[in-house]
Amino acid sequence: MIMQPRFPSTRSSRSRPARLLAGACSLTAALALAGCNNFSGDEKSQAEVIGNFYRIHIKNNAPGLPSAEELREFQPLVSRALFTLLTQAEAADARYHALAGPQAPPIVEGDLFTSLYEGATSFSVDSCETGDDRGDERSNRQDGQRASCQVAFKYSKDGASESWNDKILLVREEQHWRVDDIEFIGNDQSSQREYLTDTLTDAIKETQ
Question: What are phi and psi of 128, to 5 degrees?
Fold first, then answer.
């Protein structure tokens, strides 16, 4: 049986209305983080990791799961747990297409690392806060080993424009900050949350 993709290809950016971000410092993939926000210490390191991560992602402009080559680029920037999940999802997608055939849709469609199906064309790291910000069973580390950053994204292409915020969750591993998860906030401020790690876990389960 052909498995349905995690994100249907008919999904439109209009299904998630945009909230304009007044005063956000826009950062295109070609620009450096310096000068956008006056970060220092841990926050500067956190913003730099996120900046490097999304510059690679926007440069590659590849929807769905990252390829093996993209995973190698991301590896120094993500946590061991997230890298393992990404690798497992990529392997699950390969196994699925070996059985279903190349005409089958990918197990994840659309942009994997932002709320918008089409992805982002620019971004800015607005603020970072060190400390456990999850408040649930996801966190089992001491304060000071986790952080979260609010990132403003924008999609501008072919006359369309969308703006939204997502929250990037980081963990400190071997004295370096790494991207550990993403909370897809978009414009939905309800208590129902969606995380990158949940998306990957569900995609892997759907191939089993």
Answer: -135, 145
Please give the full DSSP string across 130-190, using - where no structure is assigned: ES----STT--S-TTSEEEEEEEEEEEETTEEEEEEEEEEEEEETTEEEEEEEEEEET--S
Say what the pLDDT of residue 100 is: 85
b/e code 159-179 from CB counts within 10 Å (16+ = b): eeebbbbbbbbbbbeeeebbb
Q: Is the pLDDT of residue 21 over 60?
A: no
With beta carbons less than 8 A apart as the criterion, state whether 105 and 5 touch.
yes
- Name residue 156's amino acid: S
Token output for 162: 């969308």
Burial (CB count <10 Å: 0-12, 13-18, 19+), residue 115: buried
CA 165 centroid distance within chain: 11
What integer pLDDT is reported at residue 179 of this predicted model? 98
Its pTM stands at 0.77
Of the two residues 23 and 205, the one the predictor is more confident about is: 205
* DSSP 8-state assignment for residue 14: G
Residues 155, 121: contact at Cβ < 8 Å? yes
**pLDDT value at residue 134:** 53
- Asked whether 37 and 25 are in contact (CB, 8 A), the reply is yes
pLDDT, tens digit (0-9, with 9 covering 90-100), for 178-202: 999 999 998 764 444 589 999 999 9
d(CA 37, CA 33) in angstroms, rounded, equals 8
